[in-house]
Amino acid sequence: MKIDFVLNGTPTSVDVPPEMPLLWVLRDVQGLKGTKFGCGANQCGACTVHVDGSAERTCRLPVERVAGKQVTTIEGLSPDGSHPVQRAWREIDVPQCGYCQAGQIMSATALLAEVPEPSDEQIDRAMSRNLCRCATYLRIREAIHRGAALSRGEPSEAPPSAGGAADAGEEMPR
Ligand code: FES
Ligand code: FES
User: Fold this and answer.
1) Rounded to whole angstroms, how far apart are CA atoms 39 and 45?
2) Which of the ligands is closest to the CA of residue 37?
3) What is the set of domains in the chain, with CATH numbers?
4) 84 CB within 6 A, ligand 2
5) pTM of the shown model
6) Percentage of residues in the chain with pLDDT exceeding 70?
7) Distance 131 CA to ligand 2 centre (A)
8) Would you state the pLDDT for residue 159?
9) How far is the CA of 96 from the centre of ligand 2 (A)?
10) pLDDT of amino acid 58
11) C-alpha 5 – ligand 2 centre gap (Å)
Protein backbone atom coordinates (compact mmCIF):
# COMPACT_ATOMS: atom_id res chain seq x y z
CA MET A 1 0.00 0.00 0.00
CA LYS A 2 1.31 3.44 -0.89
CA ILE A 3 1.52 5.80 2.06
CA ASP A 4 2.49 9.46 1.79
CA PHE A 5 3.86 11.60 4.58
CA VAL A 6 6.44 14.32 5.08
CA LEU A 7 9.73 13.02 6.46
CA ASN A 8 12.20 15.57 7.80
CA GLY A 9 10.62 18.21 5.60
CA THR A 10 10.60 16.12 2.42
CA PRO A 11 7.40 14.71 0.89
CA THR A 12 7.87 10.96 1.06
CA SER A 13 6.00 8.00 -0.36
CA VAL A 14 6.54 4.40 0.75
CA ASP A 15 4.98 1.23 -0.59
CA VAL A 16 4.80 -1.07 2.44
CA PRO A 17 2.19 -3.02 4.41
CA PRO A 18 0.07 -0.42 6.24
CA GLU A 19 0.58 -2.16 9.57
CA MET A 20 4.39 -2.02 9.32
CA PRO A 21 5.69 -0.10 12.35
CA LEU A 22 6.98 3.35 11.48
CA LEU A 23 10.33 2.42 13.07
CA TRP A 24 10.86 -0.27 10.43
CA VAL A 25 10.00 2.19 7.68
CA LEU A 26 12.45 4.76 9.04
CA ARG A 27 15.35 2.39 9.57
CA ASP A 28 14.96 -0.30 6.92
CA VAL A 29 13.10 1.49 4.12
CA GLN A 30 14.39 5.03 4.50
CA GLY A 31 17.81 4.12 5.92
CA LEU A 32 17.54 6.55 8.83
CA LYS A 33 19.33 4.63 11.59
CA GLY A 34 19.39 7.35 14.24
CA THR A 35 16.06 6.22 15.69
CA LYS A 36 16.71 3.12 17.76
CA PHE A 37 14.96 -0.17 18.47
CA GLY A 38 15.04 -0.83 22.21
CA CYS A 39 12.19 -2.85 23.68
CA GLY A 40 9.80 -3.01 20.75
CA ALA A 41 6.97 -2.80 23.26
CA ASN A 42 6.28 0.93 23.72
CA GLN A 43 8.15 0.85 27.02
CA CYS A 44 11.60 2.45 26.67
CA GLY A 45 11.32 5.49 24.36
CA ALA A 46 14.42 4.69 22.27
CA CYS A 47 12.30 4.86 19.11
CA THR A 48 10.83 8.32 19.75
CA VAL A 49 10.34 10.77 16.87
CA HIS A 50 8.04 13.74 16.34
CA VAL A 51 4.72 13.29 14.58
CA ASP A 52 3.17 16.68 13.84
CA GLY A 53 5.45 18.06 16.54
CA SER A 54 4.53 15.63 19.31
CA ALA A 55 6.89 12.99 20.70
CA GLU A 56 5.67 9.58 19.52
CA ARG A 57 7.06 6.08 19.84
CA THR A 58 7.43 4.26 16.55
CA CYS A 59 8.10 0.60 17.38
CA ARG A 60 4.37 -0.20 17.52
CA LEU A 61 3.00 2.70 15.46
CA PRO A 62 1.57 1.43 12.14
CA VAL A 63 2.91 3.58 9.35
CA GLU A 64 -0.61 4.13 8.02
CA ARG A 65 -1.23 6.27 11.12
CA VAL A 66 1.25 8.90 9.91
CA ALA A 67 -0.27 9.24 6.43
CA GLY A 68 -0.43 12.95 5.59
CA LYS A 69 1.52 13.92 8.71
CA GLN A 70 4.89 15.51 9.42
CA VAL A 71 7.46 13.09 10.82
CA THR A 72 10.76 14.37 12.18
CA THR A 73 13.61 12.10 13.25
CA ILE A 74 16.87 12.94 15.00
CA GLU A 75 18.41 13.40 11.55
CA GLY A 76 15.85 16.09 10.75
CA LEU A 77 16.19 18.10 13.93
CA SER A 78 18.85 20.29 12.32
CA PRO A 79 21.09 19.89 9.27
CA ASP A 80 24.29 20.47 11.21
CA GLY A 81 23.68 19.54 14.84
CA SER A 82 23.01 23.17 15.74
CA HIS A 83 19.61 22.72 17.38
CA PRO A 84 19.88 24.24 20.88
CA VAL A 85 19.12 20.90 22.52
CA GLN A 86 21.81 19.14 20.49
CA ARG A 87 24.29 21.88 21.45
CA ALA A 88 23.28 21.53 25.09
CA TRP A 89 23.72 17.74 24.92
CA ARG A 90 27.29 18.25 23.70
CA GLU A 91 28.06 20.93 26.28
CA ILE A 92 26.87 18.75 29.15
CA ASP A 93 28.37 15.62 27.52
CA VAL A 94 25.19 13.69 28.29
CA PRO A 95 25.55 10.28 26.57
CA GLN A 96 27.24 7.27 28.08
CA CYS A 97 26.64 4.29 25.76
CA GLY A 98 24.36 6.58 23.74
CA TYR A 99 21.74 4.05 22.75
CA CYS A 100 18.77 5.85 24.30
CA GLN A 101 19.89 9.36 23.50
CA ALA A 102 18.23 10.04 20.17
CA GLY A 103 14.90 9.22 21.78
CA GLN A 104 15.77 11.35 24.80
CA ILE A 105 16.59 14.32 22.57
CA MET A 106 13.38 13.97 20.58
CA SER A 107 11.31 13.92 23.78
CA ALA A 108 13.29 16.86 25.17
CA THR A 109 12.80 18.98 22.04
CA ALA A 110 9.07 18.25 22.02
CA LEU A 111 8.89 19.31 25.67
CA LEU A 112 10.73 22.59 25.06
CA ALA A 113 8.55 23.40 22.06
CA GLU A 114 5.57 23.20 24.39
CA VAL A 115 7.13 24.47 27.63
CA PRO A 116 10.06 26.79 26.88
CA GLU A 117 11.28 27.03 30.49
CA PRO A 118 10.27 23.80 32.23
CA SER A 119 10.80 23.16 35.93
CA ASP A 120 12.64 20.07 37.17
CA GLU A 121 9.26 18.52 37.89
CA GLN A 122 7.96 19.21 34.38
CA ILE A 123 11.14 17.76 32.90
CA ASP A 124 10.98 14.65 35.07
CA ARG A 125 7.33 14.12 34.17
CA ALA A 126 7.86 14.62 30.44
CA MET A 127 10.95 12.40 30.35
CA SER A 128 9.78 9.70 32.75
CA ARG A 129 8.98 7.20 29.99
CA ASN A 130 12.35 7.54 28.27
CA LEU A 131 14.54 4.95 29.97
CA CYS A 132 18.33 5.07 30.18
CA ARG A 133 20.15 1.96 31.32
CA CYS A 134 23.26 4.08 31.90
CA ALA A 135 21.29 6.35 34.27
CA THR A 136 22.20 9.65 32.62
CA TYR A 137 19.02 11.20 33.98
CA LEU A 138 20.66 14.06 35.92
CA ARG A 139 22.72 15.13 32.90
CA ILE A 140 19.60 14.91 30.72
CA ARG A 141 17.75 17.21 33.08
CA GLU A 142 20.69 19.65 33.16
CA ALA A 143 20.94 19.57 29.37
CA ILE A 144 17.25 20.36 28.97
CA HIS A 145 17.65 23.43 31.19
CA ARG A 146 20.73 24.36 29.15
CA GLY A 147 18.85 23.78 25.90
CA ALA A 148 16.15 26.13 27.14
CA ALA A 149 18.80 28.77 27.87
CA LEU A 150 20.41 28.35 24.45
CA SER A 151 16.98 28.65 22.85
CA ARG A 152 16.62 32.01 24.60
CA GLY A 153 19.83 33.14 22.93
CA GLU A 154 22.41 32.58 25.66
CA PRO A 155 25.87 32.05 24.14
CA SER A 156 27.00 28.52 23.42
CA GLU A 157 30.11 27.10 25.08
CA ALA A 158 30.71 24.51 22.36
CA PRO A 159 30.80 25.20 18.60
CA PRO A 160 28.29 23.41 16.37
CA SER A 161 29.53 20.12 15.04
CA ALA A 162 31.26 20.44 11.69
CA GLY A 163 30.13 16.99 10.72
CA GLY A 164 26.76 17.63 9.11
CA ALA A 165 24.36 15.30 10.85
CA ALA A 166 27.18 14.30 13.22
CA ASP A 167 25.41 15.64 16.23
CA ALA A 168 24.39 14.35 19.59
CA GLY A 169 22.07 11.91 17.92
CA GLU A 170 24.58 10.82 15.32
CA GLU A 171 27.25 9.88 17.88
CA MET A 172 25.15 6.96 19.01
CA PRO A 173 25.99 3.43 18.02
CA ARG A 174 23.69 2.16 15.27
S1 FES B 1 11.71 0.50 21.14
FE2 FES B 1 9.89 1.64 21.07
S3 FES B 1 9.45 2.11 23.14
FE4 FES B 1 11.20 0.80 23.24
S1 FES C 1 23.23 6.38 27.57
FE2 FES C 1 23.25 4.23 27.67
S3 FES C 1 21.14 3.67 27.72
FE4 FES C 1 21.14 5.81 27.92
Assistant:
1) 8
2) 1
3) 2-76 (3.10.20.30), 84-151 (1.10.150.120)
4) no
5) 0.90
6) 90
7) 8
8) 54
9) 6
10) 98
11) 30
